[in-house]
Amino acid sequence: MATKLILAKTPAEAVDAKTSSAAFIAGGTEVNRLGSDIAGEADVLISLKKCGALKSIERDAGYVTVGSMCTFQQIVESEWIPAYLKEAALFMASRTKRNMATIAGNIAANRSDSYLIPALTVAGAVIELCRKSGETVRVGIQEYLENKESYGNDLIVSVTVPEDIRLVSKRYANTAQSHAVLTMSAALTEEGIYMAGGVKNVGQLHFCDLEKAFNEDPDISEEAIIKMVRDCTGLHTEDDMFGSDAYKRYLIAVTAFDLHRKLKGKEV
Amino acid sequence: MAKQYKVVHCTVNGKEIEQVVDVRSSLTDMLRNDLHLTSVKKGCEVGECGACTVIINGEGFNSCIYLAVWAEGKEIWTLEGLTGPGGELSDIQQAFVDEGAIQCGFCTPGFIMTSWEIVNSGREYTDDELRKALSGHLCRCTGYENIFRAVKKTMLRHLGKYEEAELVNSQGITEYPEPMPFK
Question: ipTM for the complex?
Answer without folding.
Answer: 0.87
